[in-house]
Amino acid sequence: DDDVDNADVPFVLEDDDWDYLEEPEELAKRQKQHIEKLEKCITKTKINEIVSPRKGKKLLVLDIDNTLFALDGKNSNDWNALKRPFTDHLLERCYPFYDI
After folding, report:
1. Dihedrals φ, ψ of 43, to 5°?
2. Which residue ranges of the chain lie beneath pLDDT 50?
3. How far apart are CA 70 and CA 79, in angstroms?
């Protein structure tokens, strides 16, 4: 539109046709940095077991927000109202096979 002052429009990178592949050396360097940060975080993290893991069961980690509960910024103390459909069924079916 000719009436729009382009100075007030933020820059937008058109990346649809942008074929970007990072150089292998740069990718390896970044991956090494990410792994080092992750290992540092893992080392510093303290895990408090509430219940000991059950022998022979794998751990299933579920995202509470929008997987088990539809929180979406809702402020409610009624967990049943926030619980997504079939949450209880999912947990009951998974529990015999997984620690959750």
Report:
1. -60, -40
2. none
3. 10
